[in-house]
Amino acid sequence: MFFHPMDIFIFLALGISIWAQFKVKGNFNKWSEVKTRTGLSGAEVARQILDSNGLHNVPIEVVPGMLSDHYDPIKRVVRLSEPVYYGRSIASVSVAAHEVGHAIQHQQSYTALVLRHRIFPMANFASGVAPFLFIGGFLLQQLSLIGIGIVFFSAAVAFQLITLPVEFDASKRAKNLMLSEGILFNDEEHGVKKVLNAAALTYVAGALMAVFELLKFVMIFLQGNAEE
């Protein structure tokens, strides 16, 4: 009863997501073995780019975990995993610069980032509520619950779609800033692209899966209305 033709596309997107995760880890591990010619660590690169952009008040913290790196817009702090913070490889500086890219986006009120921050609470709440509405709608055979679930889930999908330009822009800023500030040499750009592109693919796969999931429920809802 729950299988739908759109599930094929959802499974395909899931497969891409799993493959992307392997690509991220594989590229990070590969380029972690390649040291930068400047010899700078991820933390040093992050500090240099932050300071050169007037973000002296943004601290850098080291956090446990693998690829747990992120920028906290609420506390305005860049958090780097240990391999990135201490590492002096192409992979380490790429990830560090990417997270700093988000801090610069915040400083400049980058439109997509501002929008993502604003809808995050609603999207977070909606993503938790929507599954229960869908399940309730199917079990009780109430299309109205599925319709409400679609509205809630749309907010979560919108969040994922808005995340794409935010992540791509942060990666573009990271590469350009490292080149302009002499942190990265032209012949090292290839490795940076490999690391950042693999990471971006995970967001693309996640967005695809969410979109296909939404379309599936929309089609079920429309089909149910047509049969009434």
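That was protein one. Protein two is written in the same sequence-then-structure order:
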Amino acid sequence: MDLLQILILAIVQGAAELLPVSSSAHVIVAEKLMGLDPTVPEMTLLLVMLHTGTMFAVIVYFWKSWHTTYFSSAQAFRTNALRVVVATIATGAVGLALLQLIKHVVAGNVPGFEIEHLFGNARLMAAALAAAGVLIIVSSRFPERTDNDDLSLRSAAWIGAVQGLCLPFRGFSRSGATISTGFALGVGRRRAEEFSFALAVVLTPAVIVKEAYRLYQAQGAAMAVHAGGLMQLVGPSLIGMVLSFLAGLVALRWLSRWLEQGRWHFFGAYCLLASLAVLWVG
């Protein structure tokens, strides 16, 4: 993998991770077009670094608004922290149950099966992208709410549960699904956006740890073959992390502007077109 490929993946990951268009589907398609294997340890290390960059972009971008919303007082912090915890528990419950169901139904409980084995399934990614697109378009038809404190514990749990559905399916945008669910539940647009990315900051470290552990487990002959490549990739991966951070900031600004201008449905239309592109490339 050369530096140009890393830079391309960093831009794709940084932008698509934070826009409601599914970063994983875009990254996987980009990898295929460049002839890269998304399952090798080098790619795992790179994606860990790129996820780290986008996580910091979210923290920097939303810090001021979160300070006003979540940290304005001890009571506000406790209330909003409880919502985040409830949503995260719902995400874990739904996500883990769905992963076990997929292992049982799709893999027949084959030992060593990883959900990453499904990453290359173009039809599955296309279907998930199309589903996200329809969800975004439908949610854009709900009347806009302007109040900023309209997120109940029940709504938080529903948003978290929908986030759990996104975990196994590459193409089913996490931000698109959670923000759309917020709209459907009557949550204000700015509030839904803030809460969706607050959940992302909680979820992303767990994803990073999981991917890092998967990289650590890649031992034996496979690790020996890739060890040199991993060491050579550390420096370029750091560059990729910085670039994904910058691309993430631009993407978040774009997302906020389109939410304010009532252009949320355009992201849904893009997901539908992207699903056709995935089928063509796959």
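Residues 219-225 have pLDDT under 50 and may be disordered. Keep this in mind for the problem set.
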